[in-house]
Design a protein that fits this description.
This protein has helices spanning about 1-25, 35, 55-60, 65-90, 205-210, and strands spanning about 95-105, 110-120, 125-135, 135-145, 150-160, 165-170, 175-180, 185-190, 195, 220-230, 230-250, 255-265, 270-275, 280-285, 295. Helix content is about 20%, strand content about 45%. It contains five helices and 15 strands. Strands 8-7-6-5-4-3-2-1-15-14-13-12-11-10-9 form a 15-stranded mixed beta sheet, covered by helices on one side. The chain starts with a helix and ends in a 17-residue tail after the last strand. The protein folds into two domains: about 1-90; about 95-130 and about 195-295, no CATH class. Helix 1 (about 1-25) packs antiparallel against helix 4 (about 65-90). The protein is of the alpha+beta class. A hairpin with a 7-residue loop joins strand 14 and strand 15.
Length: about 300
């Protein structure tokens, strides 16, 4: 910590030094050589030729602008190097990756824009943002996690035209405090790895399918937190069971998809398919085998999939 403080002090002092120098010097490059030779040591080459204690060490040598700017360049490089070291030692919040997944709602033979899910991962956090649009209504769900997959905060905003309502979540000691505009505050248990979702929203489906461990139990459960600006918050259990796999043709390649039974809020049952990258590519109702969503770019490849519930 002392080394970082020392670097901060040095950078601050150096920045102040050169700011004062450039402000006070008002360097004029057209000074001729005769004037420079007659300039007393410790006097700047400025329009008023007044002594400058700030840059005395530079002026003392009697060197001209060329040497001066060489030294200034060295100082600048030193500042850049120390800044890089400080960022590394201080564990800066360096962005590692970002990803945007787009889903279309299946409506008969048509595909309608439904949801965009944005994932931003850094050294110290994960931010998940889901935007679902239906007509004039837009629902945005944003949840933030630390490096231990602990939820730190969340917000859900429902916008209809110019009117918007929101619900906010803060977390302390694995207890989520939900504040809704014009309603009483609610508190719910918020375990590690909780998935924040709402309605209409597909964050729970996408993240649960992504987190399923193929080397683990065939049925796995994930904690969920359902929040909405106009409804009471709920604790959820999202259940996922691997049923088997199906092969589809995408472009000129055959791809194997893992097939799951997904149970969401209120016992709603869906069949979901995941590609080898761990992404949800198709989801449909378990009974009718219709509707649901499809990842953009997978419309043709998944059009023949059926909601087979038996294992294979």
């Amino acid at each position: 910590m002392s080394s970082i403080m020392a670097q901060d002090h040095f950078l601050g002092e150096t920045a102040n030094h050169w700011t004062n120098f450039l402000t006070r010097s008002k360097i004029v490059m057209r000074v001729n050589m005769k004037d420079r030779r007659n300039t007393p040591v410790g006097t700047c080459w400025d329009t008023v030729s007044r002594p400058c204690h700030v840059c005395e060490s530079v002026c003392r040598s009697g060197d001209g602008p060329t040497t001066f700017f060489r030294r200034l360049g060295k100082v600048f490089l030193g500042i850049v190097a120390l800044s890089c070291c400080q960022n590394a030692l201080g564990g800066g919040d360096k962005q590692e990756s970002s990803e945007t997944i787009r889903f279309l709602r299946v409506s008969g033979s048509e595909f309608v824009k439904e949801t965009e899910i944005h994932l931003v991962r850094t050294d110290n956090r994960l931010v998940v943002t889901s935007i679902t649009q239906r007509g004039e209504q837009t629902l945005t769900v944003t949840s933030r996690f630390d490096s231990n997959q602990e939820l730190t905060s969340a917000k859900v905003t429902l916008r209809r035209g110019q009117h918007s309502q929101s619900a906010k979540v803060s977390v302390t000691d694995q207890t989520a405090t939900v504040v809704r505009e014009g309603n009483e505050t609610s508190e719910l248990v918020c375990p590690r790895g909780v998935i924040v979702t709402s309605a209409p929203d597909w964050t729970d489906s996408y993240l649960a399918v992504q987190r399923f461990d193929l080397t683990g139990s065939p049925t796995q459960e994930f904690p969920g937190l359902w929040i909405h600006p106009t409804r009471k918050p709920l604790q959820l259990t999202i259940k996922l069971t691997r049923l088997g796999s199906d092969s589809v043709t995408r472009g000129n390649a055959t791809e194997k998809l893992d097939r799951f039974l997904l149970v969401l809020r209120g016992g709603s049952r869906y069949v979901a398919w995941r590609n080898r990258q761990g992404q949800l590519v198709r989801l449909m109702t378990a009974i009718k085998g219709s509707g649901g969503i499809v990842m953009a770019g997978w419309e043709l490849a998944t059009r023949s999939l059926k909601p087979q519930l038996s294992s294979n």
